[in-house]
Amino acid sequence: MAIRSFHVSDPEGLDQVAEYVSAFLKSGMCVALRGSLGCGKTEWTRRFLRLKGVSRPVVSPTFTYYEAYSSEREPVTYYHFDLYRISAEDEFFMIGGEEIMDGDGNICIIEWPDVISGLLENSRTIRIDFEMSGESREVTVSIPDAVMSSACDALSDAPVV
Ligand SMILES: Nc1ncnc2c1ncn2[C@@H]1O[C@H](COP(=O)(O)OP(=O)(O)O)[C@@H](O)[C@H]1O
Ligand SMILES: [Mg+2]
């Protein structure tokens, strides 16, 4: 696991975290966002999706369980989940969560992911932990080794120009 921490003193500071994660996130993967209410999970998702070319406003999916967003730049559909109101894995199956996770070309960004921790494969899940201290946040990104090494391989295979 490669772990990197960011000191985020205002919401704009989340853009740097979004850019870092963007370098590793490929279709078929998940992002698990962990941290208390109001720590910036939805704000991070909003900034990340904007960076990825999503123009539709990103709303908090607390009452709809998830929202889907397509990018204008890449053949990927982002599913933004909020599992705050889900209390068992079964309920995640019932809303079609597993099919979405396994669907071609999908990337899942999941707030309150602990209820489905048994379904989140370590090798394809990037974890982001948010800790609040006043207006600041300590944001820690954990990238699985397999994801890190395939990103490095892709870099070293790139033609030298
Ligand atoms: N340093 C910071 N990082 C992230 N959010 C911040 C920061 N300072 C203030 N905020 C504010 O905190 C709120 C976080 O809300 P939200 O992203 O909805 O939280 P969550 O989804 O984790 O419950 C936003 O209104 C955001 O503007
Ligand atoms: Mg939220």
Question: What report would you give on this structure?
Answer:
The chain is α/β, with parallel strands linked by helices and 161 residues long. The protein has a domain of 105 residues: 3-Layer(aba) Sandwich (Rossmann fold). The chain is built from 5 helices and 7 strands. A 7-stranded mixed beta sheet has the order 1-7-6-2-5-4-3. β6 and β7 form a beta hairpin. The termini are far apart. The model has no long low-confidence stretch (mean pLDDT 95). The site of adenosine-5'-diphosphate has 18 residues, from α2 and β7.
Strands, helices and their partners?
Layout: E1 2-8, H1 14-22, E2 30-34, H2 41-51, E3 66-70, E4 77-82, H3 89-94, H4 97-102, E5 106-111, E6 125-133, E7 136-143, H5 145-157
Parallel strand pairs: 2-5, 2-6, 4-5
Antiparallel strand pairs: 1-7, 3-4, 6-7
Helix pairs in contact: 1-2
